[in-house]
Amino acid sequence: QVQLVESGGGLVQAGGSLRLSCKASRSTFSINTIGWYRQAPGKQRELVALIVSARSTNYADSVKGRFTIWRDTNDRNTLYLQMNSLKPEDTAVYYCYARVLNTYWGQGTQVTVSS
Questions:
Q1: φ, ψ for residue 99 (rounded to 5)?
Q2: First and final CA of the chain: distance in angstroms?
Q3: DSSP string spanning 5-55?
Q4: Which pLDDT value is given to residue 55?
Q5: Average pLDDT per block of 10 residues along the chain, 115 residues long
Q6: What is the secondary structure of 43-97 as a DSSP string?
Q7: Fewest Cβ atoms nearer than 10 Å: which of 49, 82, 88, 100?
Q8: Alpha-carbon gap, residue 101 to 36, rounded angstroms
């Protein structure tokens, strides 16, 4: 079982930056697939960024070049998502996701980007 706790969301103006953190109950390096999804009001939850097979990274086309996902090599239980050049359409609840046999989700953190 994996517990995930997100933090770092907030309100930011368009063009600004935020860094989200996901604290896992075990080393992120031991989790096969880990990453971030988001859900905007009235929309389905969508992929933002994933680290797959503990090695390759996948990004949604809408965030490529603006968002970066990585695992902390000092605090190995923490996953980050650096979000730069934020746009109003990035507004959503951001969820940390992990798959180790079963699928696990965090409680989500709200990101609001004002125009």
A1: -130, 115
A2: 40
A3: EEE--EEEETT--EEEEEEESS-GGG-SEEEEEEE-TTS--EEEEEEETTT
A4: 77
A5: 96 98 96 96 97 89 98 96 98 97 97 97
A6: S--EEEEEEETTTEEEE-TTTTTTEEEEE-SSSTTEEEEEE-S--GGG-EEEEEE
A7: 88
A8: 18
Structure tokens at 115: 């125009």
> What is the average pLDDT value for the chain, to the nearest integer?
96
Strand order of the β-sheet with 67-71 is 4-7, 18-24, 78-83, 67-71
Structure tokens at 48: 């933002």
Amino acid at 20: L
**Nearest-angstrom CA–CA distance, 70 and 54:** 11
